[in-house]
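Lab notes, practical 5.
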Amino acid sequence: MHPTKLVISYWADSELAFVDIAKNRCHELGIQFDIYRIAHHSSWFGANRSIVKNALHLTNTLMNVLRAGFRGNFCAFGTNVCRSVFLFSWIFRQTHFIFNELPEHKSRSPLYWLDRAIFRRARFVYVSSIPRAQFVKTLYGLTRDIGVVENIAFHTIPNYTEGKNGGVVFAGSITPKRFSVQDIQKFQALRDALDSKIVVYGLVARELSPKFASLLDYQGVLSHGELMQKLHNFRYALLAYYQDEPNYNLCAPLKLYEYVAAGCRVISINRNVGLLKLAERYPSLIFFIDDPLSTLSFRDELAFARERETFLQEALRSNERLALAITS
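Output from the prediction step:
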């Protein structure tokens, strides 16, 4: 028997594909659908932020979410949303918890024990990749499987166009703190290999060294729709995530799916475990910058197109399975 209503509570900027799929399914089945966003008060990131004002704002938002989801199916997307509603999950007909970041892994933290309780006691819990699921199972000594919902934000795969002229793009913020001296040297090697500056869409800090800045062609900040159109012009796209925290080392970021959907070969600055696992399955999609750069131009076009389709289809299926589960 289907629920009479479905409430999805989000703490993220981008919605994954399962949201629209679930919304369409609710419309077909006559299920009431609502989505609520939980976020800090608008003043939280300003100079005059107030802890009290922010706490009252978050509490009021949470109460509205709980009232909306009462006796219906509920889906909590976001690590902090999962934590916030876990103790109230008994008021819902069925609850699905989706951790968009890894749970707390340091046992000294009270959050470790809360996250551990969620993964041990909740019936439906998900993370964003298979390596993350394996990490959490080991961390909390779980014997059951954990669901995986991949970070794909669209439910129609764009057509693939061959014959891009080249060029490399980076979408995101560039600051001195984000990139080490070794990373900058990797940028230099890539620029030399491709004989082209790295085009950047996003924020670039003013305090970059002249040497680092000289490697970049800064094009400013674009809306998400404009960015996706620009990505189609590039053959290569850069990922840069730290390795010193499990959350980053086991990453499978949304940007990866956007790059691949745009037909870009992904070049990772670091050998993150999550990306290494994906590269084993899809060797034509992901390249590591410290591999011999001479191999970059010899990736087979047909293999890339085939692996791109499989990679995106599998990501979509994980979202389709979740949409089916939360509307049942």
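Observations recorded by the TA: Residues 301-326 form the longest helix (26 residues). The chain has two domains: 5-149, 168-313.
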